[in-house]
Amino acid sequence: MYRISPIGRKSNFHSREKCLIGLVLVTLCFLCFGGIFLLPDNFGSDRVLRVYKHFRKAGPEIFIPAPPLAAHAPHRSEDPHFIGDRQRLEQKIRAELGDMLDEPPAAGGGEPGQFQVLAQQAQAPAPVAALADQPLDQDEGHAAIPVLAAPVQGDNAASQASSHPQSSAQQHNQQQPQLPLGGGGNDQAPDTLDATLEERRQKVKEMMEHAWHNYKLYAWGKNELRPLSQRPHSASIFGSYDLGATIVDGLDTLYIMGLEKEYREGRDWIERKFSLDNISAELSVFETNIRFVGGMLTLYAFTGDPLYKEKAQHVADKLLPAFQTPTGIPYALVNTKTGVAKNYGWASGGSSILSEFGTLHLEFAYLSDITGNPLYRERVQTIRQVLKEIEKPKGLYPNFLNPKTGKWGQLHMSLGALGDSYYEYLLKAWLQSGQTDEEAREMFDEAMLAILDKMVRTSPGGLTYVSDLKFDRLEHKMDHLACFSGGLFALGAATRQNDYTDKYMEVGKGITNTCHESYIRAPTQLGPEAFRFSEAVEARALRSQEKYYILRPETFESYFVLWRLTHDQKYRDWGWEAVLALEKHCRTAHGYCGLRNVYQQEPQKDDVQQSFFLAETLKYLYLLFSDDSVLPLDEWVFNTEAHPLPIKGANAYYRQAPVTLPVSNAS
Ligand code: DMJ
C-alpha cells in the first residue's frame, strides 16, 4: 500500500528524497560532531590519534581552522595543534599586554633623559651573614657547588616572636626587626669597594628612579605607565581599575635600594588609596597574588608595618571565592564584588592553568603564618594534594587541569608559558619552610627529572634548552619565560647534595648560557619572547610574533642566582651588557618601553613600562651588583614576581604569629 504524501503524490519519490536528506544529515552530523573525537583533549588513545593523523594528511583545515591572522601565518607544514596552542598563548599575552601589540608605533622614541646619580645611601650591615663562604674551584673555571643548608630549627628570632602573642600594632610599636632601608649593603669597607661594581649598582638604582619618577608624573595610582604617550596603561589582568600596580609591585625594590622618599610616597598611597572594596573588578587570581599579595607580604617582612599584612590579607580574601570548585583547584579569574569566578574561554575546555593555580603556595602559606589563620595554607595544601595524587603522564604535568573534573586537559607541557612557576614553587615551598616541607622537594625532583629526560635537549651547536612537549612531540622552542629555569636548576643543585646535584647545576648553567646567547644573537643585545632550535637557527626567534621584548626579567634572574652560587664574573658581565642594552634601546625621556622586534637595529618601542620591570628586572640587576649579604639566599626566597619572602627558621624577619584556633577548638 502506498502512503499518500501531503500533496497527494505517490511516496516512491518521497523515499528517494528521504534517502537524500538522510545522507545529507549523516554528512552534516559527521562534520559537526566528528570533530569532537578529534579535538586535542581526546587524544588519550592511539586509535583516535591514528584517525586524526589520517585526516590530517587529507587536510587538517577541515577540522581545525587556519589561524585568522594572515600576517602571522605559520609555515604550512606545521602541526595545527601548535597553531591552536600558539593562538591561545597569543590571546593570553594579549590579555596581559592589552592593546600594546596592536598599537601603531608612537611618533618619536624620546631620548634618554638626563640622570642624576645619587650619593650612595648609608648602608647598614645586613642582619645576618651572607651565603656561607664557599670555596671556589677556580682551576676548573667554575665554583664548587655550595649547599645552602637548612636552618637550625628553633634558633631564631622568628620562633621567639611566635611564642609571645601580640597584636600587630603592638608588634610594630615594639620595634620588631626592620630591615635597614637600603636592604643592607656591601660588606667591604668603602675604600676597598670595587669602584666599577658600585657604579653599576648606582646606575641600576638611577634607572629605578627614572622609571618611578615618570610613573609618578604621568600615571600615579594607575596600573602602569605609557612612556611615549605619557599617560597611564592598564592590562586586563588588573581588571580595568586603578590599583596602583606599579606602586605595589615596585615598592620593595625602592626599599632595597634605599630610595626612602619614594618608598614613603608609595606607602602613603597604599594606606590612603589601595582597596578592593566597592569595586567590581575581574582580576587574575595568579597575577593579583604574585604582584599584590606577594608585594605586600615582602613589605611586611621588611618593615613589620601592620598596614602591609592587613592589605595582603584583604587582597587574598578577595581571591578566595575562586577556590570554590569541586576539586579546590581555583579558577583563573574572580570578580572582586560578586565573587563570581571563571576560567579563560581559550584554556582547554574550561581548564585552569598549571602555572597559575600552582603559583599561590608561597604567598598563601606565609600569609597563614603571619596572620595565624590556617585557612590560606589549607587552600594551597588542597591544590598540592590534587597534584600529588593525580596520575602524571610520563611523570610530567600538563599545563591544563579541569577544576570541576580534576582531569588534565591538553597534554601540553612547558617550563615556559602556562607551566613555568609551578615548578618554581615546588622548590621554593620547600626552601621557604626551612627545608622541612619534604613533600614539595620530592615533587620538585620527580618533576625535574622527568623534564630532564623528556624535554631538556642540546642543540648541534652545544646549547642546552628546554623544549615544549605536545602530545609526545617536542617543539624545539623555548620561551623567554623559561629562562628563569637556569636559576631554578642551580638553586635545586645548591640546596641538596644527591645524585642529581651535578646534573642540575650543569643544566642550570647551560640554560642560562643559552638565554644569554639568545640576547647576544640579536643586534639590540636583548632577547626575544621565544627562540627556536632547528637545522637553520639556534637561539633565535623565527616568527614575527615572537621577536618582541617586553622588559622581562627571567634571564637576569638566572644571572643573579648563578652569580650568587658560583661567583663566576661572567654573570655580572652579562648583566652589565643587559643594562647597556636597556639604556640604549628601551630608555626614553619618560620611562622604559619594550621593543617590538629585537632583531632591528632601531626597533620600535611598545609604549608600556611593565610593573614587573620595577619589581623584577631592576631588582635582579641591582642585586647582581650587590654584595651577597643583601638578601642572602639562605634567608630569603623570591616569589615569582621577585618579591623576597623570609625563610622559616632562618630569618629574623619571618614574623610568625600565633595560630588562631577556631572557637570550638580554642577552649
Ligand atoms: C612576571 O609577572 C612573573 O615573573 C611571572 O611568573 C611570569 N612572568 C612575568 C614577567 O615576565
Write the layout of secondary structure elements.
Elements lengths: L11 H27 L7 H13 L21 H18 L59 H6 L5 H6 L21 H25 L4 E3 L4 E3 L11 H13 L2 H14 L8 E3 H19 L2 H14 L13 E3 L5 E2 L9 E2 H4 L3 H11 L3 H15 L10 E2 L10 E2 L6 H13 L5 H17 L1 E3 L5 E3 L1 E3 L2 E3 L1 E3 L5 H10 L6 H20 L9 E4 L4 E3 L13 H13 L2 H18 E2 L2 E2 L18 H14 L11 E3 L5 E3 L16 H4 L1
Helix pairs in contact: 6-7, 6-20, 7-8, 7-9, 7-20, 9-10, 9-12, 10-12, 12-13, 14-15, 16-17, 16-18, 17-18, 18-19, 18-20
The structure holds 1-deoxymannojirimycin (DMJ).
Please supply descriptive tags for the structure shown above.
667 residues, mainly alpha, Glycosyltransferase, 3-stranded antiparallel β-sheet, 21 helices, 19 strands, disordered C terminus, binds 1-deoxymannojirimycin, transmembrane, signal-anchor, Glycosyl_Hydrolase_47, glycosidase
Describe the structure.
The protein has helices spanning 12-38, 46-58, 80-97, 157-162, 168-173, 195-219, 245-257, 260-273, 285-303, 306-319, 354-357, 361-371, 375-389, 420-432, 438-454, 485-494, 501-520, 554-566, 569-586, 611-624, 663-666, and strands at 224-226, 231-233, 282-284, 333-335, 341-342, 352-353, 400-401, 412-413, 456-458, 464-466, 468-470, 473-475, 477-479, 530-533, 538-540, 587-588, 591-592, 636-638, 644-646. With 667 residues, it is mainly α. The chain has a domain at 195-641: Glycosyltransferase (Alpha/alpha barrel), CATH 1.50.10. The strands form eight sheets. A three-stranded antiparallel β-sheet has the order 3-4-5. Strand 14 and strand 15 (538-540) form a beta hairpin. The N and C termini lie far apart (88 Å). 1-deoxymannojirimycin (DMJ) is lined by residues 421, 481, 552-553, 612, 616, 640-641. It is a single-pass type II membrane protein. One of its GO terms (molecular function) is mannosyl-oligosaccharide 1,2-alpha-mannosidase activity. Keywords: Calcium, Disulfide bond, Glycoprotein, Glycosidase, Golgi apparatus, Hydrolase, Membrane, Metal-binding, Signal-anchor, Transmembrane, Transmembrane helix. Residues 156-178 have a biased composition (Low complexity). Belongs to the glycosyl hydrolase 47 family.
